[in-house]
């Protein structure tokens, strides 16, 4: 959380970079033609804009109109559109990309900057939606003073085309672009009629542009496979890799490399036998070996429609580990293997200077299949953590893996590390490799179905690469922190080219569909204006090599009423922002304990600042307009992010890093699970995530982000027909809930009283400890149970020291 306004500390935003990147969608249907379709960018004539007549016009009050004959796009009441209606439309249109913790801004600095509640937004710059956004192919018009983009809230002079900036009020030319006979005609320009637009430059107007085949422009996918696996794990992995290869688009270029004691680079031109060039793994790749590899006679990258049979033969030819060493002590030279893969993808461009790189047609991706720790060559660790120099060697390994990740990002290559099995893989050394490249690290129980699904979804989650995010706010609003997969921009990013540009810029490590940045903001001074403006701009190169500039512009009304402000707070968005700030600080076991305590203090402080005392009671009332917020934070405190549900610290670190970059939907589910109970005819009822839902005659589904559980009561198990119907409906529901999710969740199905039932019960609030009237108030479904049924339900739970939500609130001296 940034320093409070008015303190002596700097208000420049701090960039918090998680070491994990995820959040994409499930794979779409795979196309059968040998070439992926290119987007059709229709050239828009500047003077004959498309008709956006169905979009409401942006109203402006007369006080906003400037000189040069500027006029608002419509006055209040014209065409039946009020300011409130238009602002509501803009917020709705921008919701897939921008979510605020409150729909209004309190105009006094001190209450607005209350640290326990905070104000901010979740930004999803690479989100793709249907129907697609308006596409504009001319260069965007920007304010020559502050760099802001023209938008639907600007005032326009229809006779001259001049427009006034919403952020600095300076007048700008449009070279006659926005000249129109009537004010109403201005809505035919999409950038003046809606809150989100895409400016696209497909490159066809660039001097010297040369069209090339889709196959040559397709970014390659490299499979980097651990060849020190046991028979069981290798068999599972082979099945997953066969399914993965069959699912790829025919034009996709692939390469296959294995690593163990040596690095084997397979030749995809050999159809009769699996042939590979073998390189030593105990040291970095020498210049001579690089040249031999790059300029050799082997074909190491080829389109899948040309080499599918060869690739399948190579996967089938993989053999299990034949030595006698345990998994943790087997030789694995991952560092050297990554160097080899980077050299293969870069190709002859390795001869170019360090500050240049060859574009391979987009963002390449390396899928690293890991079954154990790196124990040989650069970036390796001793087999035992008790080694006398382990700490020193681990520090060097982390630095080296981070360097390899940075090199990969420089070449527009993302490394996704997908681990599986029970052998420790030394997460602290692998995390920098994935995070620095813009990839992610995911843990799996085995190399089976979920692993295969994540292989498929990993190659499809990218929206683009080479991204830059800009955040602009009105003068009295300042960005204090940015949490997400980004870093401060480099000097050549084009930031700061405008004299009075006060925007906050973030260099995107990756551009993905379900990725989000948490932005926290504060007021520098009290606000006198009636509205506050926000503009989010994402500039990146799409997967089709088009330069995209996505502009999202919204405004929020200000208010001088605390009640109005609290009623405008979105409990779920506010909770996710709080959770991301809290999880960011939970780096060690001790930090986690401190953050759990901070959740208590945060809830008490919100009640102290915005709640009220209850007459004749020692309890304080929590604000009724924020009634859902405490329960969401209670889930945060006791769930996998801060609680003790996940056993090993490495697993918790991976889970938290996934959370820090996840989009809103996945972030919410990872923090607070969603519980659905099966009803008749395949329907489901959503209920609070309380353990009193575990009734013997019920079947429930619990969605907890990257885990989905299906629990079946014993009475349902006894009825075979009912059980089969319920199980089929629950599995279909689970697939529908998670088909767009990355990483794909682990799904477990079990029955009442089984050992695995603890996975579900530990994630539910122990409401069985509450008195009946409190149970019914928060879980009304219990009212249909008889006294005997409720007594039997309560007796089915094992006594624990865990507090229920009501008990927790009372321990904080707060009323539920």
TrEMBL record:
GO CC, alphabetical: COPII vesicle coat; endoplasmic reticulum exit site; endoplasmic reticulum membrane
Annotated membrane topology is: Peripheral membrane protein
List each copy of the Zinc finger Sec23/Sec24-type domain by range: 140-178
InterPro entries per record: ADF-H/Gelsolin-like_dom_sf (IPR029006), Beta-sandwich_Sec23_24 (IPR012990), Gelsolin-like_dom_sf (IPR036180), Sec23 (IPR037364), Sec23/24_helical_dom (IPR006900), Sec23/24_helical_dom_sf (IPR036175), Sec23/24_trunk_dom (IPR006896), vWFA_dom_sf (IPR036465)
Subcellular location per the Swiss-Prot or TrEMBL entry: Cytoplasmic vesicle, COPII-coated vesicle membrane; Endoplasmic reticulum membrane
Q: What sequence ranges are listed for the domain Sec23/Sec24 helical?
A: 570-668
Q: Taxonomically, which superkingdom?
A: Eukaryota
A GO MF label: GTPase activator activity
Q: Which GO terms describe its biological process?
A: COPII-coated vesicle cargo loading; intracellular protein transport
Question: Which residue intervals make up region (Disordered)?
Answer: 1-43
**Pro residues bias locations:** 25-39
- One matching Pfam family is zf-Sec23_Sec24
Locate the Sec23/Sec24 beta-sandwich domain: which residues?
A: 464-559
Claim: Membrane is one of the keywords in the record: yes
Tell me if Phosphoprotein is a UniProt keyword of this record.
no
Q: Where is the Sec23/Sec24 trunk domain?
A: 224-449
User: What are the entry keywords?
Assistant: Cytoplasm, Cytoplasmic vesicle, Endoplasmic reticulum, ER-Golgi transport, Membrane, Metal-binding, Protein transport, Transport, Zinc
Which Gene3D superfamilies does this one have?
A: Sec23/Sec24 helical domain, Severin, von Willebrand factor, type A domain, Zn-finger domain of Sec23/24
Report the family membership. Answer: Belongs to the SEC23/SEC24 family. SEC23 subfamily.
* Function recorded in the entry: Component of the coat protein complex II (COPII) which promotes the formation of transport vesicles from the endoplasmic reticulum (ER). The coat has two main functions, the physical deformation of the endoplasmic reticulum membrane into vesicles and the selection of cargo molecules.
PANTHER family membership: PROTEIN TRANSPORT PROTEIN SEC23, PROTEIN TRANSPORT PROTEIN SEC23 A
Q: What is this protein called?
A: Protein transport protein SEC23
Please name the source species: Physcomitrium patens (Spreading-leaved earth moss)
């Amino acid at each position: 959380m940034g320093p409070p306004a008015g303190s002596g500390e700097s208000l420049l935003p701090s960039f918090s970079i998680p070491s994990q990147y995820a959040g994409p969608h499930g794979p779409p249907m795979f196309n059968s033609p040998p070439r992926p379709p290119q987007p059709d960018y229709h050239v828009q004539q500047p003077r004959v804009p498309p008709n956006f007549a169905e979009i409401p016009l942006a109203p402006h009050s007369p006080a906003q109109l400037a000189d040069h004959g500027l006029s608002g796009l419509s006055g209040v009441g014209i065409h039946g559109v009020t300011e409130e209606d238009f602002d509501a439309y803009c917020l709705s249109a921008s919701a897939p990309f921008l979510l605020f913790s409150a729909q209004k801004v309190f105009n006094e600095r001190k209450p607005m900057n209350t640290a326990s509640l905070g104000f901010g937004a979740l930004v999803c710059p690479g989100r793709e939606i249907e129907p697609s956004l308006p596409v504009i192919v001319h260069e965007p018009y920007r304010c020559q003073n502050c760099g802001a983009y023209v938008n639907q809230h600007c005032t326009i002079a229809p006779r001259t085309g001049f427009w006034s900036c919403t952020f600095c009020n300076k007048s700008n030319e449009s070279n006659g672009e926005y000249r129109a006979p009537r004010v109403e005609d201005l809505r035919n320009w999409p950038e003046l009629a809606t809150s989100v637009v895409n400016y696209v430059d497909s490159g066809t107007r660039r001097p010297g542009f040369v069209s090339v085949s889709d196959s040559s422009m397709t970014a390659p996918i490299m499979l980097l496979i651990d060849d020190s696996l046991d028979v069981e794990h290798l068999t599972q992995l082979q099945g997953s890799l066969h399914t993965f290869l069959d699912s790829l688009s025919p034009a996709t270029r692939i390469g296959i490399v294995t690593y163990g004691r040596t690095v084997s680079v397979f030749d995809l031109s050999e159809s009769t036998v699996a042939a590979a060039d073998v390189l030593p793994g105990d040291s970095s790749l020498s210049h001579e070996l690089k040249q031999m590899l790059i300029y050799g006679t082997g074909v190491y990258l080829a389109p899948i429609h040309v080499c599918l049979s060869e690739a399948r033969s190579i996967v089938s030819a993989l053999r299990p580990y034949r030595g006698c060493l345990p998994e943790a002590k087997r030789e694995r030279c991952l560092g050297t293997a990554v160097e080899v893969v980077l050299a293969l993808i870069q190709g002859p461009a390795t001869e170019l200077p360090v500050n240049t790189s060859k574009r391979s047609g987009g963002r390449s991706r390396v899928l690293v299949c890991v079954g154990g720790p790196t124990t040989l060559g650069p970036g390796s660790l001793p087999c035992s953590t008790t080694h006398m120099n382990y700490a020193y060697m681990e520090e060097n390994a982390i630095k080296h893996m981070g360097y390899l990740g940075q090199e990969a990002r420089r070449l527009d290559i993302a490394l996704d590390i997908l681990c599986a099995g029970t052998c420790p893989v030394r997460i602290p050394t692998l995390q920098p490799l994935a995070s620095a490249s813009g990839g992610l690290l995911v843990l799996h129980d085995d190399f089976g179905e979920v692993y295969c699904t994540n292989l498929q979804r990993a190659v499809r989650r990218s929206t683009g690469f080479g991204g830059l995010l800009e955040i602009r706010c009105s003068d009295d609003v300042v960005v204090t922190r940015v949490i997400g997969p980004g870093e401060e921009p480099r000097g050549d990013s084009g930031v700061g080219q405008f004299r009075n540009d006060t925007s906050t810029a973030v260099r995107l490590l990756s551009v993905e569909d379900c990725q989000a940045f948490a932005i926290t903001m504060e007021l520098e001074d009290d606000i006198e204006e009636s509205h506050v403006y926000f503009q989010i701009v994402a500039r990146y190169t799409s997967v089709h090599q088009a330069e995209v500039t996505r502009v999202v512009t919204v405004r929020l009304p200000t208010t001088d009423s605390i009640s109005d402000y609290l009623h405008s707070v979105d409990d779920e968005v506010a909770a996710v922002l709080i959770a991301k700030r809290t999880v960011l600080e939970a780096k060690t076991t001790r930090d986690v304990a401190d953050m759990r305590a901070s959740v208590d203090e945060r809830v008490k402080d919100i009640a102290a600042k915005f709640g009220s005392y209850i007459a004749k009671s020692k309890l304080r009332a929590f604000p009724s307009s924020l009634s859902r917020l405490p329960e969401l934070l209670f889930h945060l405190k006791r769930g996998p992010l801060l609680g003790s549900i996940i056993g090993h610290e490495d697993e918790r670190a991976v889970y938290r890093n996934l959370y820090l970059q996840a989009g809103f939907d996945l972030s919410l589910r990872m923090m607070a699970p969603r519980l659905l109970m099966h009803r008749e005819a395949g329907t489901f009822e959503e209920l609070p995530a309380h353990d009193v839902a575990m009734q013997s005659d019920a079947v429930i589904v619990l969605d907890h982000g990257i885990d989905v559980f299906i629990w079946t009561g014993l009475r349902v198990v006894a009825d075979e027909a009912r059980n089969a119907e319920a199980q089929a409906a629950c599995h279909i529901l689970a697939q529908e809930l998670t088909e767009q999710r990355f990483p794909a969740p682990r799904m477990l199905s079990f029955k009442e009283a089984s050992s695995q039932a603890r996975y579900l019960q530990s994630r539910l609030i122990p409401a069985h400890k509450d008195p009946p009237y409190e149970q019914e108030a928060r879980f009304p479904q219990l009212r249909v149970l008889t006294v005997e049924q409720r007594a039997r339900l309560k007796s089915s739970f094992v006594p624990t020291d865990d507090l229920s939500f009501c008990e927790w609130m009372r321990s904080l001296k707060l009323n539920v």
